[in-house]
Amino acid sequence: MRDTTVERATPVEISDESLGEILIRWNRMFWWSGVRPMLQRMVAADLTLAESIVLRSLGRGPLTVAQAAACLMLSHSAASRAVDRLVRDGFVAREENPEDRRQKLLTLAPRGVELVGEMEGIAVGRLEQMIGVLSNEERGQFHTLLSQILLRHTAQLAENSGNLPCQVGPFALEDAAADRDDELITKR
């Protein structure tokens, strides 16, 4: 039987932990407070994890089926089955790609937009509760640090991985790379 007791530590014990140990605690809290409720909503909507990933990726912009397959790290046929179900259930629209008529372009249908917004709203609401224990000044510091982590990591992904079909974070990789290039130009 699995131990379900919650590991509690005093503020002094936590402050003595390494950054790695604190990140493990943060990850657990993030999972239980933000990700788990979002996944519960996904299950309530009768979505598989693959379908949820496709929806959330489409929330950041249109994809082809091949790009969706790359996001999922699945074969084209497996991704196509997930997409077929999302189209059938009214979450995704599939249209001819105006740039290549042989391809289909996937976008969120209104029902998909609503569900993605609801799922992300659940996660964000729970995470806002977590950081609600911070003072205004601490929230400002947290915001600044988190923004820097996102910007730098996304730019690093773009630099190391090129133009990935999946969109990471709050913006597409190519947008982060363009922002980084603009920043380098203005600093010169």
From TrEMBL:
GO terms for molecular function: DNA-binding transcription factor activity. Pfam families: MarR_2. InterPro entries: HTH_MarR-typ, MarR/SlyA-like, WH-like_DNA-bd_sf, WH_DNA-bd_sf. GO terms for biological process: response to stress. Residues 16-151 form the HTH marR-type domain. This is HTH marR-type domain-containing protein.
